[in-house]
Amino acid sequence: MQRIDLGAFDLAQVADLVETSGSPHDPVVLYERTGGLPFFVSSLLTAYELDTEHLPSSVAESVADRVRLLGPVAKELLTLGVVAGLLIPRSVLRAAASNVDDEMFAASLDELSRARLITQYDARNEVAIRHALVRDAVYYGMTDGSRAQNHSRVARAFEEYGLGHEPDGYARLAYHLSRGLDADRSRAVDYSIRAGSAAFAIGAYEDAVRLFQAAADRLTPRGDSTQRCRLLIDLGRAQRQARDPEFRPTLLEAARMSHRLGDIDLQIAATLANNMHGILYVQIFADHERIDSLYRALRTLESSGRIDSSATARVLAQLAVELMWAADHHVRRDLLLRAIEIARATGDAAALREVHLAVLVALRTPHMADLHHSSYLELVQILDASPGRTQEPLAALWMARTQIEVGELARARRTIGAVSPAHTSRDAELAWLVSSTRFGVELATGRLELCERDLVALTAIPVYPLETYSFGRMLAFVCGLRALRGDMREIVDAADDLSARFDVVSSYRPILALAYADIGNIEAAAQLLNWYDRPRVEAIEVDHAWPSAMGVLARAAASIGNTVVCKAVYDLLRPHADITVSAVSIVYGVTHHHLAHLSIALGEYERAQLHLDDALTAHRTRGYAGWYAESLYLAALLATKVAPSASKELIDEARRAAVDTGATAVTRRLDMLSSVDDR
User: Fold this and answer.
1) Which residues touch 301 (CB under 8 Å, ≥6 apart)?
2) Cβ proximity of 577 and 589 under 8 Å
């Protein structure tokens, strides 16, 4: 739809219109009275019955003059029409005027057409009010009682012809009934709820919020009721999808209300609807009110004898996710193991699928790798057994991230590719998460030039009400790419912001130290790493940031030769040697690679070679081409220590791999190694 602004007519144009129409009006008087406004001019050109010395002073007066000349049936049809809207199905208008016979109905419409108040579209079987100004003048000229009566008549006509039983129709009926006679207004709540549900189903979440809120405002009686509680749940779900932060208090109130009502099913529905969503998954955030609500739901299920139900499995799974940043991973593991056991016992396949997905979300530390992997494999079996089933977009994201970690890169690309623009077009959070996961796939495969281009687009992070530090969310992507391509100057430029958050995010200090080392400021890197001793390294909390924190701490310590940190980190990482080090969707190579680097720094060359052999095999097998080049660099570095004669050949091999992937940071390190070797 395109809006075209019509300017005012000048005197000559008004005179031409008067002459063409054959109107007796004086063009000068008409122009002075209307100011040349097109609709006002055209309205007065048809007023042959009026004395030219007494032209109406406004559009409203012009319309009122013409309405006064109408017969009673034409007036009735006009008032019904303006209540129904600017465009009215002829059959609805006919049904609303039920006391008029067909001949009088047709004649009265013709009368309105001659008065230029309506336009009849016979081909479409519709009647249009000629202009919004006509509609407003007639609508607001009615008494309140007459207006309400006509709204009720129009609503009944829409219902009679079945035009209210569709998404737009529900909203239309809610509108008319809410403005109708007192006896009809209570019915507006039901149609507002139906309209909200229809809007939600097609992704019109803002409209759904407006419609559910209107229903909640009109619903009587006030106070607690099953209907109001159910409506609050629907409203909260719509608010969450619309990224309205009010979803949280809405759903918390619904959970409290259902608890007061003693309605367990509604309490569970409200509690489960109030979950972490979208970008919240990648923030360090714990919502203790939501956590308390989940524990309250568990107590309710237990006291009602439903502790072994599939509802319990779902609540346990959601609780584990909510506790990502608020409880030890062993606590989350125990909750999820119990949830898996209950879901299997109940035979509820959907609940079991949700629980396994929660494992992928809530247990991302290497210490839980076995359970994480087994849940992934079972999810794959469940999905393969239902080939026609479409994955939920967020489920696809977590599956793709896991596939990146285990080296199933082609499968990860297919999984994330299944999230279509239809899913992301109305959800900025989801669109960003999909783009970031695609970035992770391409980075893992070694398409670094493509990642260089895509990194810029990732900086357009959707604003979220709980956002505190958006660059922190970008850090994994910047660090992951700059470990292989370019340099880490961008991270050094953010030193002040990162330093202020060292106590919040365990990976920030080692990332900044690595960045300083990368650009050659060894003194600054050493100063940051000297803060660590073995107790401090061992005290780094084992949460979802632990793998990346240890990976970058290993690289930084090995790069500058801090042996205290190297020994401590080696001992902590050694039990997880075969695991891929990752953060969100970003791969930092396999742990063997970092153990090799640490061993080189510690002078443990034979041990370093064993780790390198395993790292090269794992990187080749999992398709991590950029990190394969980086492991070849370590092999060349090791050769300069133990077999200098072989180092040139290894440097050349590593350089070829780096060039193939666009790993310019690896090439830079190889150049430095060559210069040292030549000396």
Assistant:
1) 264, 268, 307, 309, 311, 312, 315
2) no
Q: Strand locations in 553-608, DSSP E? A: 580-583, 586-590
Residues 6+ apart with CB under 8 A from 382: 349, 352, 353, 356
Tell me how long the chain is. Answer: 679
Q: For 532-586, what is each residue's pLDDT tens digit?
A: 999 999 999 998 889 999 999 999 999 999 999 999 999 999 999 999 999 989 9
* Structural domains of the chain, count: 2
- Look over the chain and give the mean of its residue pLDDT values, rounded to a whole number: 89
Q: Is residue 595 part of a domain?
A: yes
Q: Secondary structure of 494-529 in the HEC alphabet?
A: CHHHHHCCCCCCCCHHHHHHHHHHHCCCHHHHHHHH
SS3 583: strand
pLDDT band at 388 (very low <50, low <70, confident <90, very high): low
- CA-based torsion, 132, 134, 137, 143: positive or negative: negative
Query: Does residue 199 form part of some domain?
Result: no
* CATH number of the domain enclosing 628: 1.25.40.10
Q: Is residue 236 part of a domain?
A: no
Bridge partners, residue 120, by sequence: 127
| Domain ranges, residue 474 | 437-678
648 in any annotated domain: yes
CB within 8 Å of 57: residues ≥ 6 apart: 33
602-617: pLDDT as tens digits: 999 999 999 999 999 9
282 has pLDDT over 80 = no
Alpha carbon distance, N-terminus to C-terminus of the chain: 72
pTM of the predicted model as reported, rounded to 2 decimal places: 0.81
Convert the pLDDT of each residue in 61-102 to its tens digit: 778 878 888 999 999 999 999 999 888 999 999 999 978 999
